[in-house]
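Hey, can you fold this one?
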Amino acid sequence: MATDPLVMPLARELLACLAQEVEKLDSPPKYVQLRTGAVVDHLISENEDECCSGLAWVRPVTFFPSSSAFPAQDDTPPPKGVVAWAVTLEIGAIRCAPTGDERSIPTAAQWDAVTQAVMDDAAAMRRALCCFGELPEGRGRIKSMLPGPWLPLDLSGGCAGGVMTVTVRGPACDCAEAGPTS
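Sure. Predicted structure:
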């Protein structure tokens, strides 16, 4: 059985780095997971709220051929075929946002605390990228990865947090697996 030799190994390495770095926080998120889809939904059940428990994730976003000028997508067929891919991964984290009730709104101290927690999560994401770029498996990956901007998430559903992306160059390793099975 053939498995993905490109995106998932990178996603798992980044997840391990993220887990290591969020564990250093005063209040680490309860969940540190891989997620898939166009966006990460913050799940809630009768017994649990991922937002208020804390969630950090790595999500594969996209990949495209980038053989000549990383991180640009190839716009013409490379003479020797695709030799490299640009893989974009998202890292993110959410926390509970303060909410008021019918008699009061959140205090400045509550907003300060959640803003501090969100920025501490962002710092953990930056450290995770340092770890990811310097892993022995990456062999010089720091020179072939491009972090994107950190962006805040909408304060919806009582959640606060942010995401950032990193695009990393990966080898075109699928072709060795192509062809009929023996």
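The two ends are 12 Å apart (CA to CA). Let me know if you want another pass with a different chain boundary.
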